[in-house]
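thought: fold this chain, then report.
action: predict
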Amino acid sequence: MKIVAHGVDMVDCGRLQQSIDRHGRKFLERVFTPVELEYCQGRKRRIEHLAGRFAAKEAVLKVLGTGWRNGINWTDIEVRNEPSGEPKVYLSGKCRQLADQMGLAKILISISHISTHAIASAIGAAEDSGHALGIGD
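observation:
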């Protein structure tokens, strides 16, 4: 594997809470997948977990070298946890197309949070041969 790109992002939990308070369920459903919402809603520190996923999505976009434009949806990036707790990225739509064009075999992420902030780091890796294996497979 060779490292192709790295992205990092930090989210203020208070600002995320304000967006949720202002826009409610519409905001949550636009930004997070049903799987992400179910996972976070069941957590004691729900906002920290939502902020971690928000930061992860932003970090993945930095790996892909784009922003929220050209047909990219927030839900094109989904973060799911393995039974071990390890977060994994699953891409769809335009994000999946971009990752395939870059030859990414995997996007590794790490998420940390405290009551006030969440941070995520994403690393895009390709096979040495340059062939994508599929993210989340």
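thought: worth noting. Residues 30 and 74 are 7 Å apart (CA to CA).
final: tokens above.
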